[in-house]
Amino acid sequence: MPVVPLKELVDAAFAERYGVPAINIVNDLTLEAVLAGASQARSPLIVQTSVKTVKAYGAKVLFGMWQTMTEGIDVPVTLHLDHCPERDVITECLGIGWNSVLFDASTMPVAENQRQTVEVVAEARAHDAHVEGEIESIKGVEDGIGSDTEPRRHSLETSLTFLRETGVDVFAPAIGNAHGVYSHRPDLDFERVTELVEATGVPIALHGGSGLDDDQFSDLIARGAAKVNISTQLKITYMQANLAFLRDVAEPADKWDPPSLFTHVRQAVVDMTVGLAQRFGSAGKA
Q1: Is 213 one of the catalytic residues?
Q2: What is the pTM of this model?
Q3: Which of 90, 182, 241, 273 lies deepest, with the highest CB count within 10 Å?
């Protein structure tokens, strides 16, 4: 299967009530590994890139890696720009070939957020791309974007007006979720997801997925969370796999073989991806 639009993945997941893993990659190794994991699990996959990663590699280089690694891919995948408040980065990525973007204007007044999101949606449509929107910051800092302040939650009517006026394809509400590592089990507002879905039929993006329990995932996915974001878990898996391997080879110090390290880390990320697909119900859906 080729690279497909974001909406094709989330609409199918929304209809059948499973969640598509949306994993933030950090380099070429993690990109290849999550793709391999999705193929092994026979799962659709949303590959996400942060603004930080785009700037570190350069959009053209990063997209070139994506094109090469998805050539001949046998499961449906899509490329998404996560949490981007910078309009010029959105324009660059859409122009190069990203399939969707999250325009993160959550720090703006809702009216200005809405006005600019309408413009981003129009820009995306010109590239046959899709848009995720949000009007509330998700608590926690991720790749330099965000805040540790508890976000203000807007009324249901404010959210519905935003969705109606902007025409975004996916919506990311604040429901007590947070980026980063949870210090305790979060108290999530499950009913808010139900209210939004019943009123609009728009698929929900669940942010701050790393660290939620299986019962929380299952409940939210059943209510319409069709896109499940994973960033912190990928970073932890990647770093811990590196650390464990390097500790094992440090003594005796005559086994310094980078390809062996890469193989070990790759397998850890592949296994993580397969596990996520199984947890979210997307395994076997490709």
Answers
A1: no
A2: 0.92
A3: 273
